[in-house]
Amino acid sequence: MSERRPRLVLICGLPGAGKTTLAKRLEREMPAARLCPDERLAETGFSRFDEAARARIERDQWVHAQDLLTAGSSVVLENGFWERGERDEKRLRARELGAEVELRYLAVPLAELQRRIAVRNREPGSVVLTAEMLREWQGGFEAPTQDELDLFDPPMP
Ligand SMILES: Nc1ncnc2c1ncn2[C@@H]1O[C@H](COP(=O)(O)OP(=O)(O)OP(=O)(O)O)[C@@H](O)[C@H]1O
Ligand SMILES: [Mg+2]
After folding, report:
1. CATH number for the domain that contains residue 22
2. Is residue 1, in this structure, part of any structural domain at all?
3. Per-residue DSSP letters for the chain?
4. What's the pLDDT score for residue 4?
5. In the chain, which residues have pLDDT < 50?
6. Which of 4, 56, 74, 156 has the highest count of CB atoms within 10 angstroms of its CB?
7. Per UniProt, which keywords does this protein have (predicted)?
8. pLDDT (0 to 100) of residue 1
9. Residue 119 domain flag
């Protein structure tokens, strides 16, 4: 019997791009452990906008992800990965650990992000984001180029 190598999946995209929706599907289908900073922030009583708490949780989850990959489990990380540097770090480290690594970039136009978030804002318990926040955040998002996408393993069939 051939053993599959563990796989790290990075889910990249702005709020409303569908990261959590996709990550939950992959969690079931791969299967994989899904690590989500937003959920951990909520569980531990921090605001989604607490950047210091987010940085700490992202560090902890990355340590946990490396342990899981070392133990042979696949992992889905839905951090958003706005910056090329973060994606490079994760790709190189996953390879060092002998894992495959995939980048799922959810490219969604701003108007569609705003439409989806307006719908989600109406769901009970959702953290309300505004159309203006989304517009501002778009300016800070470093979209992956095709050259970068080619550095990752192809998606699993
Ligand atoms: N492919 C899709 N087509 C249309 N709507 C979608 C799609 N994927 C997700 N949605 C809807 O868009 C909204 C946002 O999706 P989701 O919560 O998965 O995004 P997200 O990227 O995780 O956002 P955030 O960064 O704020 O957590 C949800 O209401 C979801 O049902
Ligand atoms: Mg999400």
Report:
1. 3.40.50.300
2. no
3. -PPPPPEEEEEE--TTSSHHHHHHHHHHHTT-EEE-HHHHHHHTT--TT-HHHHHHHHHHHHHHHHHHHHTT--EEEEEE--SHHHHHHHHHHHHHTT-EEEEEE----HHHHHHHHHHHHTSTTPPP--HHHHHHHHTT--PPPHHHHTTSPPPP-
4. 86
5. 1-2
6. 74
7. Kinase, Transferase
8. 46
9. yes
Pocket probe for ligand 1: among 10, 11, 21, 79, the residue whose CB has the most ligand atoms within 8 Å is 21
pLDDT value, residue 157: 74
Domain count of the chain? 1
Q: Name which residue sits closest to atom 7 of ligand 1, judged by CA.
A: 18
For ligand 1, residues with CB inside 6 Å are: 13, 15-21, 38, 80, 116, 119-120
Q: Which domain holds residue 22?
A: 7-149
Which ligand number lies closest to the CA of residue 22? 1
